[in-house]
Amino acid sequence: MKRLTLALAKRLLFWMLYFAFLRLVFLAWYQVQLFEAGVPFSQVILSFWHALPLDLSTASYILSLSFILLLVFMATGLSLFRMLEKYLNVVLIYIFSLIHAAELGLFGEWNTKLSYKALGYLANPGEVFNSFSTTSFMILVVVWFFQAWLAIMYMRKSVLPLDPPDRRGYAAGYTLIFVPLLIFLGIRGGIREIPISISASYYSQHQMLNLAATNSGYNLMVSVLDSSRIGRINPFTYMSREEARDMARNLHQTDCDSTIRIIDAPKPNVVILLLESWSADLIESLGGQAGITPNFKKLEQDGLLFTEFYASGNRTQQAMGSLFAGLPALPLITITSYPEKYHALPSLVRDMSKAGYHSSFWFGGQLIYGNILSFLVHNEFDDIREGKHLPSNLKRGKLGVHDMEFLTHAATALNDYPQPFFSTLFTLSSHSPYDFPMEHVIQWPEMEKEFVNSAHYTDKALGAFFEIARKQEWYKNTLFIIMADHSHKSYRNHPLESFEYHKVPLLFYGPVLKNEFKGQHIEQICGNTDIPASLLAQLGMDASAYRWSKNFMNTCYRPFAFFELNDGFGFKRQEGYLVWNHYAGSPWQMQAADSLQGELTIQGKAYMQALMDEFMAF
To answer: Which of 227, 246, 247, 481 is the 20 to 30 A CA-CA neighbour of 140?
Structure first.
């Protein structure tokens, strides 16, 4: 049985080296981001050290299967079990390499590892493919197979060879006792009272290094298991359910209900221009570089700009729940993936319809992505138009109709609707693969140059839209709400676990905006979940059903904003903010007076827990 022990030791060494190799590729792939973030090289090297416990646990899971198969092979001499063990390792190599290659592409867009939430998008592989340029996609496929091929070649030559069994050593009892014990301890993370968890890999204030140190296969397994338990167990439980609920409700309580009306029309048309992925860094007035979005800047001169507006999630699916139901983004999952829970949510669309509005949603691509279409249909829009419904002569890219074609067509097509209408126009050109039909105008960004230029193109389309819209009869009685669905990594390289990353533009614009608000800025904190309550209040309608939405034009508004992370959350008040690392049980960021830090932490935890508790109860 010494040969069995040696065989297992070789496999353990192989998997530890392979995990380290994949980590090295990831860090090399994103070395520019590391450099831009000012991450010391010593911190990067430490990721390999802090990765060891979780890598060992993951390798031990694999060894447990190899041990059983090889033990049966040693006992029976049947080559079938040796072959099964060989193919087990080969298949797992391909799986780990695939996960790693997917993360190389995913991290560039989402700044996260592959998770259960991300797996949901694979239900529409065509849309996933279209989100990448063909070149990028093929490079990732080559990386997938090349990594796997290298590992398999090494394993076949140095690890897998195993001589026929010598049954004289079969009775070596120490192997049957100590090897399983060692494997179990490896899986568990040692003999400590609390078993190992993802937090074992968290060591740095630079989240990218924590993600690099976290074993990708282990992370995905935990994400899938956590998501499967939602409905039975709230993974973000910090206190009693009643305490969390009461504290969250108290955050929404106000001492009065007195709305500052910013519009002077009783029943204006409402057009939401939903800009794909626009971050605050694209807007000069929000701290961005000048010249990226000059048409937006012109609109600001006659609009009302909110300078502390945040998206609660970083995916479009999450934005749909926030915009049309006032629901904050959920960690681990998205509301659009749970049609059976739609009925529990209020609907801005239906409330507008009851008030006599004709409702429509326009998008130049395919709404099947992320199950968005089912959510929109449930909200009972009078008209939903996708790329396939738009004229065939409109120019298209991989994702659908380019923004210039889309917005200029929509500007005149809105004439077909009875007034008042409530319409959402959702752009797409600022989403990868950024195949917009215009030369790159902006050359200075060292990072995200494609994204910045795509936003410049959409900004140009925005200007063209308003040139046409101003000539339409409906324009004079219209309120435009120009906002982003979520943010995006920018040339500033803000970490995902920061409020700087989640900050997005919100501009109220149009002839119905009162003159005293034109060209003004509002600096108080608010978020995209607050749009339903705030809009309904402006129209003199009841918003009490939107428990998670706040009227930010209420004179007694208590400002705060929230965003989710799969492994934590952000919570911000005027007095300070917190970004909480759930796995590490400590803050990523905390900026508040010492006397306020405890209160911020408990309020943020209560908000996150109450949100998940309510979702589970839907």
So the answer is: 227
Q: Please state the φ and ψ torsions of residue 344, each to the nearest 5 degrees.
A: -80, -5
| Residue reference for tokens 């910045």 | 452
Residue 610 has which token pair? 């109450």
Reported as a single tens digit per residue, the pLDDT across 80-115 is: 988 999 999 999 999 999 999 988 988 877 777 888
362 alpha carbon, distance to own chain's centre: 23
Instruction: Tell me the one-letter amino acid at 32.
Output: V
Is 566 in a helix, a strand, or coil? Answer: coil
Say if residue 137's pLDDT is above 90. no
Q: Which of 10, 136, 178, 4 is nearest to 75 (CA)?
A: 4
Task: Fill in the amino acid letter for 1.
Answer: M
Q: The tokens 């005027």 sit on which residue? A: 574
272 and 442 Cβ atoms separated by less than 8 Å: no
For all residues of the chain together, what is the average pLDDT? 91
Q: Are 553 and 260 in contact (CB under 8 A)?
A: yes
C-alpha to C-alpha distance for 565 and 322, rounded to whole angstroms? 15
Instruction: Tell me the CA distances in angstroms from 242 to 57, 341, 404, 498, 606, one per residue in order.
Output: 37, 22, 50, 29, 10
Report the distance separating Cα 447 and Cα 444, nearest Å. Answer: 9
Contact 489, 448 (CB under 8 A): yes
- Residue 171's pLDDT band, with cuts at 50, 70 and 90, is very low
**Spatial separation of the C-alpha atoms in residues 269 and 510, rounded to whole Å:** 10
In the structure encoding, which two tokens stand for residue 300, read together?
């600001």
Hey, what's the torsion of the CAs at 126, 128, 132, 135, to 10 degrees?
A: -60
Record the tokens describing residue 240, joined without a space.
Answer: 């009693």
